[in-house]
Amino acid sequence: MTSTFTNPPATHGRAAEPSAVVAAEVSKVYGSGDAAVHALRGVSVGFARGAFTAIMGPSGSGKSTLMHCLAGLDTVSGGRVTLGDAELTAMNDKQLTLLRRDRIGFIFQAFNLLPTLTAEQNILLPLELAGRKLDRAWFDQVIDVVGLRERLGHRPNELSGGQQQRVACARALVARPEVIFADEPTGNLDSRSGAEVLGFLRASVREMGQTIVMVTHDPVAASYADRVVFLRDGQIVTELFQPTPDTVLDRLKSLGA
Amino acid sequence: MFKTTLAGLAAHKLRLLLTALAITLGVGFISGTFVLTDAMRSGVDKTFATSAGKVDVAVLPKRDGGEIPASMLARVKDVSGVTAAEGLVKGDAALIGRDGKAVGDMPTVGMSVPAGRLLRYELDGGRAPKGPSETVLDTHLAKREKFKVGDAVTVLDHKNGPHRFTVVGLVDMGMDRDASMQGAVGFDAATAATMTGVRTFTEIDVLGGGRDAVQKAVGPDHDALTGKGLAQRLSKANGADTAIIQTGLLLFGLVAMLVSALVIYNTFAILIAQRTREMALLRCVGATRRQVFGGVLVEAVVVGLVGSLLGLVAGLGLGAGALGVIGSFDTGLKLGGPGLTGRTVLVALLVGVLVTVASALLPARAATRVAPIAALRADLEPGSGRFRLGWVRTILTALFCLGGLGLAGLGGFGSDKGESPMYMVAVGGMLFFVGVVAAMPALVRPLGRLVGAVPARTGGVPARLAVENAQRSPRRTATTTIALTIGIGLMSLFSVVAASGTATANAQLDEHFPVDFQIESQFGGGKPADDATHRVPAGLVANLRALPQLGQVTESREAGRPKKGGRDTTVQTVTASSFGSLIKVTADAGTVSAPEPGTLIVDRETARSKGYKVGQTVQVRGDRGSAPIRVAGIFRGDVPLHGVLVNEADFQRVSAVRDAAVVWAKVKPGVQVDDARRAVDDAARAYPTIRVGSMAELRDQFTKAVNVLLMVFGGLLGLAIVIALFGIANTLSLSVVERTRESALLRALGLTRRQLRRMLSVEALVMSVIGALTGVFLGVGFGWAATSAMSESAVFSVPYAQIIGFVVLAGVAGVLAAVMPARRAAKASVVESLSAG
């Protein structure tokens, strides 16, 4: 898949300076007393607008928990999370839901799509939930980039795993959210399909200024990002800019993962 | 394997309880029926035992309803050892109420009430009557008519002659069937005989003497019973009454159990589909197909047992509640306390467990087909996908539907009318329903689209998703909705038949019988209906004809020869001038104007049973003689005239009857109906047994009676509907579990909790409306056929408001059923649900 985004939207070109999402001293504790598990221990990190950031770490390092807290899916035990001008940690469930609907995109590892809806209906779902008008030209462009034109009328069980993830990417992109959170988006794919999906994500960042935060444990996937943040035992231990699979692997090894 | 199953059940107590609830309700109803009828029976039996225990020997006629000649009493008294014996007299003796009219539609029963030790009834006040001017009243009759001890009352003798009595006591005669229905007045033996004109006894009660000695004295045509034997015989007759109530209630219990079976089947099918992995894992570690099958059945037995036990408790409560309600009305019914007999427990447990296990058989078989490898496969959504009828199923469905339609069509729209075509419609309806059950999975999608059209268009994304969800597992939705279809279908059937019946009656009255008043005597009680006291006296008819407020006055005279087991064909004559104006008959053959002398007209049923043909001359027999009369025409049975209609002159040749059986009158144009009514009432005042009814009243009474019946049916069928709603709640909550991750995804993408709840509500709404609409379609369709099968002049009427009410009610109830599952779904944490499974 070599198609790229043309006519980048207005957000493009803005410097990747201000952070889209910021976590300040975020902590998360499950359970209480002796059974308390500290999933996050005072994490402070910012994710630059228009950048592709990967979060890595060994199993149980808290990387998924961090993502859930950043995306307003989970509550924090302490600290603050802000998305642009909005403080997520001060919102109730309904406000968080509407925030997710209007300003955040998601790509999960599996079970991304509703089985009863066609690919097209799945892609349009967030817009319809929000009652927003569709930019048809933008929709067509996204569809062509992910190469799903022929598959729009199919239901998820008629699509391959790679195609399903591409539908999920298209869904996240069509709504033009402030930030897309991707949780192991290639975890269930073969390497070729995985490369395609990662290619779209990188292209959307480079050419349209989309902000993406991706959780992964695959060094190759992480190498598509602009920056990699490493987590261990609920704390950020190090980070890496302009990663390659090798530098990522070296850093992971040094963490003892 | 057994332990695994039990461990699984213990781990899912809530699931077990929810599944058992359907059985609980059904078994509760059935055991409640037993508790109620047992209490009714035992209460009455106790009264009988106390009452019968007061006599040493009782002489009864061998045949029920037979008589004992008066001479028998002397013979019994002569038996050595007999200290007292008294014959019981029973006949009509109409009590005049405070309004000057005879009480009730039938005359009150006049009975002999012995004094002293032979008084078998309970004295509620005062004393037993003695002499020709004393009477006692049945306690309930007295209460209703507001008479008390010391009051003076008028009672009519068998010739309608009035006699004055003083009430000296109140006696509970409710244990006598006629007395409890018609009310009773009691006299001493001699007065009872003169008042009723009855010279025979229904029973002779004896003190002292032995049963054998008395039996010898009365001969083989009569039974001499001990007190105990008498109690048994009385209780047997009463038991037959209670058995009818019991059978009626159990029929509704059966419908409830059928619906429960559907709910159980569906729940097990879904549970097993959801536990495919668990089953496959069991197979992986070495469980045989047989063991898996057995495991599911053990689960069913436990569920059935728990449900039935809870049902027994519910039944006890239900029965006690019903007893309380009945007891709070003053029915005079003797009730025992609620209790569980061994039979009740046995039937309840057996029915509950058997129904549960039978319902689980198919799902259990499906469980054995799970391949061990399925444990390792990625989870597929159970029960999903498009449903196609296989060719076997298609053919069977077509056969059932066409057969059902054909039979119902033949019954409903064939030339025959009456009972057997109605049965044909009923059987046809059942066949068609079986066909619908088989075809339902294929119908779910089109029906879902139809029902979902409005919510999908107006309810936004959640509603659209909900409509999709309702159609995604056609089998599951089909079974869930069919359960509701049964209840709603029967309700609509009943209401269509009731509405059509009312409409038919009204149309007949309007078209063929446009009268304003109907003047009749009290119905005959125990005596033949052509007894002179139960007619409208000729003098009154003449007075009515002379009233200036009335236009046409028509009288009908009837003469029938008494015949064993009913009466022979009635010979009737009707005022000739009213033909064509007050009475409009439709010809089936020949001419059906007012009969000329020497000719008769006859209704179709009678003509058919007698083999009469137009032009034929037949012998018409009356109470005085017979005459050859030619058949001029045959008319259809849509007027209240029946049998053979002859000219007045011919009637007088064959019958001595000069009084009218019934008089119909029309108000003269320009006269207020109320004025006319007052005039008629005044004319009838001198005749206490004469009842004046207006057609408007008759219609009201009929409509009211039909509505009460409908409400009772509705209440009893309500249970089946409630069980079906449990089914919807069950299916929905299982679907919620199944779609945990899907719901979480939607929540992550921005679906609010409220929208998620709304989504499930709409899904329930769509399911229940599909079920209700199918039921309404079946109920109205077969109601139409049944109405048409009843009689050829039947008017089909659909109570639109009621039918729409059923559908709306089903929809609302469906939404209510979704409340709990929806709450549960909305409460789930997004993060946990995303990683689940």
Give an overview of the whole structure.
- The complex is a heterodimer of chains A (about 260) and B (about 850).
- With about 260 residues, chain A is an alpha/beta fold.
- Chain A has helices at about 65-70, 95-105, 120-130, 135-145, 160-175, 190-210, 220, 245-255; strands spanning about 20-30, 35-50, 50-55, 80-85, 85, 105, 180-185, 210-215, 225-230, 235-240.
- Chain A has a single domain, classed as P-loop containing nucleotide triphosphate hydrolases (Rossmann fold).
- In chain A, the strands form 2 sheets. Chain A has a 6-stranded mixed beta sheet, sandwiched between helices.
- In chain A, α3 (about 120-130) packs parallel to α5 (about 160-175), α4 packs antiparallel against α5 (about 160-175) and α5 runs parallel beside α6.
- Chain A is globular, with a radius of gyration of 18 Å.
- Among the domains of chain B are: about 1-55 and about 230-380, no CATH class; about 55-225, no CATH class; about 535-685, no CATH class.
- Helices cover about 60% and strands about 15% of the residues of chain B.
- In chain B, strands 12, 13, 16, 17, 18, 19, 20, 21, 22 and 23 form a 10-stranded mixed beta sheet that branches. In chain B, strands 3, 4, 5, 6, 7, 8 and 9 form a 7-stranded mixed beta sheet that branches. In chain B, strands 2-10-1-11 form a 4-stranded antiparallel beta sheet.
- The relative contact order of chain B is 0.11.
- The interface of A and B includes residues 101 and 128 of A.
Helical residue percent of chain A?
25-40%
Q: What's the total helix number of chain B?
A: 25
Query: What is the strand content of chain A?
Result: 15-25%
Largest beta sheet: strand ordering of chain A? 6-7-8-3-9-10
- Judged by helices, strands and strand pairing, the structural class of chain A is alpha/beta
Major β-sheet annotation of chain A: 6 strands, mixed
According to CATH, the homologous superfamily of chain A is: P-loop containing nucleotide triphosphate hydrolases
Distance from first to last alpha carbon of chain A: 33 Å
Unreliable stretches of chain A: 1-16
Mean pLDDT of chain B: 84
Number of distinct beta strands of chain B: 23
Number of strand segments of chain A: 10
